[in-house]
Design a protein that fits this description.
Order of helices and strands: EHHEHEHEEHEEHEHEH
Radius of gyration: 17 Å
Number of strands: 9
Structural class: alpha/beta
Shape: globular
Oligomer: single chain
Amino acid sequence: KWAQTSRLTLLLPHGYEGNGPEHSSARLERFLQLAAQENIRIANPSTSSQYFHLLRRQALDPNARPLIVMTPKGLLRLREAAGTLEELTDGRWEPVLDDVGVDRSQVRRLVLSSGKVYYDIAGHDERAKRPELAVARLEQLYPFPIEAAAKLVASYPALDEVVWAQEEPQNMGAWRAIRHRLEEAIGGRVPLRYVGRPWRASPSEGYPTAHLQEQE
């Protein structure tokens, strides 16, 4: 087994939908804990075209590495997650997706998220009333795209803060593994803040009503 490479690809359901801990969590934090020296790739694609280009890159990249993909069931039929033909034919894998519908000169708060929770934030009723808010997506969690993230933050000249928002409790998910990378990308320019569930022993709620209240 030594000195061998592998393109093993794992598609793991991961996205909080109120159906209990096992359904919600692929234990993203455990894979991130294993990630070092570019031994694996970890991604949480949020559109069908991103998913296509991720798998295409996995097949064509000469450096074979295992790929861990978070695949929320809630995105399977979500219209907003559908890619266009142009994105499939002319696009490529993007480790970071920016918010294209904002006036950058007005943005004071940049919210970074990954996976399904992006649609909960961007599609919220209050979102349209907040021109000072931009919502971007981190699609590749490891290797962390430090240059792309730094370029994203630098493109907003009037920022007051950057927020990392996740569905998982604070002791789970990506936060603890990538916090230092986010701080490096920000470069001390503005504060970095966490928004999400507090520390928990259980990955998620198993009661749909409680889940909806927490998600809101």
